[in-house]
Amino acid sequence: MPQTIAVLDFGSQLTQVIARRIRECQVYSKIYHYATPAAQLKADGVVGIILSGGPQSVYAKTAPHPDVAIFKIGVPILGICYGVQLMGHFLGGKVAHSKAREYGLGQLTIRKPGKLFAGLPRTLKIWNSHGDKLTALPPGFVATAVSDNSAFSGIEDKKRGFYGIQFHPEVFHTERGVDMIRNFLVGICGAAQDWTTKDFIAHSVADIRAKVGKGRVLLGLSGGVDSSVAAALLHKAIGKQLTCVFVDNGLLRKGEREYVEALYKRNFKIDLRVVDASSLFLRRLKGITDPEQKRKIIGRTFVEVFEQSLKSIKGRAEFLGQGTLYPDVIESVSIAGNPASLIKTHHNVGGLPARMKLKLIEPLRELFKDEVRHVGAALGLPKEVVWRQPFPGPGLGVRVMGSITAENLEILRNADAVLQEEMMASGYYWKVWQSFAVFLPVKTVGVFGDERTYDFVIALRIVESIDAMTADWAKLPHDLLQKISSRITNEVRGVSRVVLDISSKPPATIEWE
Ligand code: XMP
Known about the structure:
By secondary structure, the protein is of the alpha/beta class. The chain has three domains: about 5-190, 3-Layer(aba) Sandwich (Rossmann fold); about 195-385, Rossmann fold (3-Layer(aba) Sandwich); about 400-500, 2-Layer Sandwich (GMP Synthetase, Chain A, domain 3), CATH 3.30.300. The chain has 15 helices and 18 strands. It has helices spanning about 15-25, 40-45, 80-90, 175-190, 195-210, 225-240, 255-265, 280-285, 290-310, 325-330, 350-355, 370-380, 385, 405-425, 480-490, and strands at about 5-10, 30-35, 50, 75-80, 95-110, 125-135, 140-145, 150-155, 160-165, 215-220, 240-250, 270-275, 315-320, 360, 435-450, 450-465, 470-475, 495-500. The longest helix has 22 residues, at about 290-310. The protein is globular. Bound molecules: xanthosine-5'-monophosphate. Xanthosine-5'-monophosphate (XMP) binds near residues 295, 390, 393 and 509.
């Protein structure tokens, strides 16, 4: 196991960002519940602890507090924002309500660089977000840096290896913030920078082999990034002991099934079973127009088909592989409605492993999305898979408005294929969050050659986003939009008109249903 830095989560929206920054420094980090017993951290062999920020005041009745024994373990500790106030509170300093709430950009002046600010300029832009602040240092501490609004923007107790900063080094607005984090990890904790993609793959392959032994693993392959990388990693570890199942639900994009078959069967030589359930899905969706009902039917049918197909190939299988990622499993509590801390249920195969008496194997559960992409690339997956845009589980089922019929799906598939081709050719595919076509069951008049037409409408949904929580429509060059539009109306039968969706999220969602 690589050396670990523990991040205790006190409910900040930025806790995951801290963990990522640490990993970007090639040091392994793990997010722990704020009250994790010191004995556990010690048993896990952590080499340093970071106390995250948090929305509460240390004095609040419901304020999250750590196990105070962490200050006795003997490993360095860095308190960030709320974390530094906890140090003040528990180590004998004073924390008070600040008159001026410090929020946004400020200036840091470093008075005493020490190990934390080693190699940095004396003044830096920093990003603050706090109401309370430290007003008296705990014994043993000295001030190392000041800001416009705080005499204790940086503090340290060199002897015990305790450091505190009132601002947020993990956000990009803070100049050289990552250098401060690296100084803590490497210069202060002495952590080995041994968390690289290559090391991860080696650890993980050994781990999977030890766990699986001579057993068999089944994995549902959707073609998305997570399940693709999970498949490639499992295949590297156990080869023929892995069987993948790909369900064709009839709601796939043009050429998707063929692409998946070619890549995994022929290229990777993975034992891939393609289950064609498209007629079952389409039969069940016939005449359904309500979006929620569509989703329910698709979800339920998927679980049924997947379960059935696993039974038919079960043999001696003991394991069900899943592409669960770290953000899905972070052991944390929801503090003051912090959405980052909520544990999400993964995919729609929730109760399946227990029902089928399968043990779960989740080789990516330690990784963030960008780490998964790097692992995928290192395992030889093409850029088109590793960097592909998100695609919803219910597929084109949420992109055909009104009734889902084979004819409407065909029109949408063809229009979407043109859009993807042009997005790829122009390179914009890689620059936007998602780009896709939506089928509208509205007929409008057009003229094609000398003939009057009366055909359907295709909407283009092309958005920019960081995390899909909010999104804005992408301002693509007009000549590109023009080319996409004219190609769709010329090449796709059944379409007489193309419109562009210029709604942002909120209030609109990214998908139309
Ligand atoms: P919305 O439409 O809610 O979408 O703005 C946010 C992101 O989630 C994707 N999405 C889904 N993904 N199953 C999925 O796996 C779904 O049912 C689903 N609905 C939306 C959507 O493509 C976007 O990236």
